[in-house]
Specification:
Largest interface: A-B, 25 and 22 residues
Shape of chain B: globular
Strand content of chain A: over 45%
Number of helices of chain A: 0
Helix content of chain B: under 10%
Largest sheet of chain B: 7 strands, mixed
Helix content of chain A: under 10%
Order of helices and strands of chain A: EEEEEEEEEEE
Number of helices of chain B: 0
Oligomer: heterodimer
Shape of chain A: globular
Order of helices and strands of chain B: EEEEEEEEEEE
Distance between the termini of chain A: 36 Å
Strand content of chain B: over 45%
Distance between the termini of chain B: 40 Å
Chain lengths: 107, 119
């Protein structure tokens, strides 16, 4: 199975900050990487697919980059609604695997 | 608009069985692979199973292989997860999700249904 390692596991930031979350795969995943946002008590929603493609309707303040085994999610200017937990997922092979999550909290 | 509505969750004793359903609407159901995923209380996301659009190809996480069975009824736009020999560590919110792309990823998720395995 492909292991996905996210860092940091938690992050405190202020409204207006720029933040970056990283995700590392245990082997190459051909850029088949997705990012999800989850708010408390809600289902995850898709932000990014294919490492850097923005899902329709997702604000351009979200961006993804990376290739091979190392990937990043960047939020350019935090707004109150962005404080949530973020997960990466590889979909190069089964079983699909997720990072452990990054909880983004208000400082 | 894509809508996915899970049902069938509840409290079940260890060793028991439960059948989850997911009612889909807003898209051509039989054209898409569908997945089940879960999230234990306070924990991260775990992929459980997937079924192809036609229903002839399935895959399972090792943690549920041999105990869970995924199926679908394209005539009713419905997805199912039959869960047998349930254990305490199967306690989670179970989500159904629509896959898009090739390879597919879980583009759209339902709201989830809670399964609690406890005596």
């Amino acid at each position: 199975d492909i292991q996905m390692t996210q860092s940091p596991s938690s992050l405190s930031a202020s409204v207006g900050d720029r933040v970056t979350i990283t995700c590392r795969a245990s082997q190459g995943i051909n850029n088949y990487l997705a990012w999800f946002q989850q708010k408390p008590g809600k289902a995850p929603t898709s932000l990014i697919y294919a490492a850097s493609s923005l899902q329709s309707g997702v604000p351009s303040k979200f961006s993804g980059s990376g290739s091979g085994t190392d990937f990043t999610l960047t939020i350019s200017s935090l707004e109150p609604e962005d404080f949530a937990t973020y997960y990466c997922q590889q979909y190069n092979s089964y079983p699909r695997t997720f990072g452990q999550g990054t909880k983004l909290e208000i400082k | 608009e894509v809508q996915l509505l899970e049902s069938g969750g509840g409290l079940v004793q260890p060793g028991g069985s439960l059948r989850l359903s997911c009612a889909a609407s807003g898209f051509t159901f039989g054209s898409y692979a569908m997945s089940w995923l879960r999230q234990a209380p306070g924990k991260g996301l775990e992929w459980v199973s997937v079924i192809s659009g036609s229903g002839d190809v399935t895959s399972y996480a090792d943690s549920v292989k041999g105990r869970f069975t995924i199926s679908r009824d394209n005539s009713k736009s419905a997805l199912f997860l039959q869960m047998n020999s349930l254990r305490a560590d199967d306690t989670a919110v179970y989500y159904c999700a629509k896959q898009v792309g090739s390879p597919g990823f879980e583009h759209c998720w339902g709201h989830g249904t809670l399964v609690t395995v406890s005596s």
